[in-house]
Amino acid sequence: MKTMRNILKGFSILIILITSTSCNERELFDTNFILPSITGLHSEISGSLSGKLTRQDSPYIVTDDLVIEIGDSLIIEPGVTLLFNERAKLIVKGFLKAEGIRNQRIYFTAYRSSWNGISFSSSNHNSLIKFCVIEKINPVEENGALSSCISFINSNCTLRNNYFRNSSNSNRSFFSLLNSYLTITNNIFMNKTFANNLINSDNANLRLINNVFFNNKSNNNQAVILINRSIYNEVQNNIFFRNSVSEEIQVIASEPQKILIDYNFFGSQSNDPYFWNFDNFRLYYLSPCIDAGNPARDFNDTDGSRNDQGAYGGPYGNW
Q1: Which of 19, 75, 114, 198 has a CA-to-CA distance to 175 between 20 and 30 Å?
Q2: Which of 89-117 are b and which e, b meaning 16 or more Cβ less than 10 Å from the residue's Cβ?
Q3: What is the spatial distance between Cα 133 and Cα 190, in angstroms, rounded to a whole number?
Q4: CB–CB of 267/242 below 8 Å?
């Protein structure tokens, strides 16, 4: 019996020590922020970086600008969380592969309340951002196109199966493209407030296919998408709903043969796309957006049926 009491006493002391240690580690973080892990342990990174960011060492606190230099590559594993300080930015001059998976997304978010965003500069290696959540961007400095929440200058990139949410920009657009080539498919853009346009495509080649644009607001009453001096811009099979803008798509200084805008759904109070909910934006079975996208075979859903408009239609809609 004495031996059993000693064992129970030792076990109680061990529980107290574990609880005390855990509390001390958790105090390292801002008490207003949802802690990135149960222990509060993290890795700090900044400056020039290449190689791989692993889930094992996640979450990462980005204390200052993080730069992928020309000729360098950075791979981010599924399940990684990057928490950016307020003035920190991700600058891509080389190659970025941030490829999560359906049940292990990659998070780009603020350590506290906001961060400075992502800039691609002369990155022509067709970077990939897939199965990511990018949120809480609010740039604090005015620096031309680079002060957009996410900017692409002389760069190539593919964006697929991502959530872009809960960001703001009082100076510029959310996305800025200049002399760049982008493919943006099966993404959700939601709850953003911006000064000008959500996406500003200038002298660019943009394919914007099967996305949802929901509850985004332009403070200057401009557009969701502005196409200027189009090299070639294709906007198809998207759903626009409850955006506070002057118009969904605006085209200026562009030749008609360099623009294809078709099979999009423009919602209103009397024209509802019927989402199941406003979290994942899947379509209710009575939605008018089902089988309403481009009927060409290349746009078919994964089951072989005609394209459903929105983020879950088309060959990459099974997410």
Answers
A1: 75
A2: bbbbbbbbbbbbeeeebbbbbbbeebbbb
A3: 11
A4: yes
Tokens of 220: 């200057």
Nearest to residue 175, comparing CAs of 120, 127, 131? 120
> CA-to-CA distance for 64 and 90, rounded, in angstroms?
9
- How far is the C-alpha of 74 from the C-alpha of 138, rounded, in Å? 24
Interatomic CA distance for residues 284 and 224, integer angstroms: 24
Contact 211, 234 (CB under 8 A): no
pLDDT digits (tens, 9 = 90+) for 247-258: 999 999 999 999
Q: What's the token pair of residue 186? A: 């099966």
| pLDDT tens digits, 55-98 | 999 999 999 999 999 999 999 999 999 999 999 999 999 999 99
Torsions phi, psi for 22 (to 5 deg): -60, -40
CA gap 128, 60 in Å, rounded: 20
Cis peptide before 59 (omega within 30 of 0): yes
Question: Which residue, chain included where needed, has tokens 């692409």?
Answer: 152
pTM, full prediction: 0.86
